[in-house]
Design goal:
mainly beta; five-stranded antiparallel sheet; 1 helix; 17 strands; 45% strand
Length: 171
């Protein structure tokens, strides 16, 4: 029985880590794994200590959730909902959406990066070929946003050391 239980636990862990590599995120200061379930329009949350579902998981999201970022300092989870062009924002302590959520995100939000030092959320929009930047305190778009990107932006990474944002384009 222990061998089966441990094998199952390892199998779940490998599957979760594979999903993590593609479109999910470990909570940096909490043992939570957030997985966006694009086809079922929800988010699965696991306790990474024992790989069990958090109570109430999965949690409803917008249509086609595709990316997740966490601000562990503010207890916030941001989910890009590709299917309805929104960002859902959750209080991670209760996994309830904050007031006003979901917020408009432009057409085709595909990937996000979070600057927790400057309270900025960066979102690339696949169908608009742009980058939108939001103040996470208000979830309002900053002035001069959106910014033009290359064709088909699908991923982005924020480098805190060089203070640069790198965007990968699909085409």
């Amino acid at each position: 029985m222990n061998i089966i239980k441990n094998t199952l636990r390892i199998s779940i862990l490998v599957t979760a880590l594979t999903v993590l590599m593609s479109n999910s995120l470990f909570g940096a200061y909490s043992p939570q794994l957030y997985i966006t379930n694009t086809n079922s329009n929800n988010i699965s949350v696991y306790n990474t200590i024992d790989m069990t579902h958090v109570s109430g998981s999965p949690f409803a999201s917008g249509r086609s959730p595709i990316a997740a970022v966490v601000n562990p300092l503010a207890n916030r989870l941001y989910i890009a909902n590709y299917g309805d062009n929104t960002i859902s924002v959750y209080d991670t302590s209760s996994m309830t959406q904050i007031s006003g959520s979901p917020f408009p995100a432009g057409n085709g939000p595909r990937a996000m990066a979070l600057d927790i030092l400057r309270n900025l959320l960066y979102i690339v929009n696949l169908t608009e070929n742009n980058l939108r930047v939001y103040d996470t305190n208000t979830m309002l778009e900053i002035s001069d946003s959106p910014f033009t990107t290359g064709s088909g932006p699908t991923a982005l990474v924020l480098d805190y050391v060089t203070k640069r944002l790198y965007i990968a384009n699909n085409i």
